[in-house]
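[Meeting: bench + compute handoff]

Bench side (C.D.) handed over the final construct sequence. Compute side (W.E.) agreed to return the predicted structure before the next meeting so the bench team could plan truncations. Sequence as handed over:
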Amino acid sequence: MLLAGLVGGVAVWAVLARALAPTSNTDRTRFDAIVVLGTQSDSDGNPTPCQLARVTEAVAEYERGVAPRIIFTGGAVANQFVEADGMAHAAEARGLPASVILEETQARDTIHNACYTARLMQAHGWRSAEIVSSAGQLPRAALIFHHLPIEWRMHAAPPMEPPSAAGSAAFSSLETLKTVYYLLYSSWAERCSG
């Protein structure tokens, strides 16, 4: 019974952390960069609907003048295809000039997306970013970016197709589990260094 209570308490903590996660740490409406968090390509290297949704929204934000450049972040995690490469190619196919695209190709999870992108931005003297990802990932991303020395705002990419109820529930459950992992382990064990 104690174990069940502990598990339940941790789950409630994660749900509350997600619900109370900030959506920004600034009032800015213009940023130095748009950062697109990685997600896997399909097994043939083609963009998935999730990737296309993120890319499409980032390009639209660029065209609205939110930032003068886009950073795609994500390594080869789920298969041999580098997530940032696939998203950059999809952005170019949508007319985004290659000169405004940067890629961070080593990140293996959302903490790496945040840390490696913050380092890349600091190396260029950039201090602010709009973070684009799927709505379900943004609360956990906000918990991570909250610890970084940049100004940021979360921005959800609308899905390309309406998710099924089962798919939406599965994604929400997975994100809650990832938040539990972050709160219990990654937040202190995988902090950005150097």
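W.E. noted at the follow-up: The CA atoms of residues 13 and 180 lie 8 Å apart. C.D. will use this when planning the next construct.
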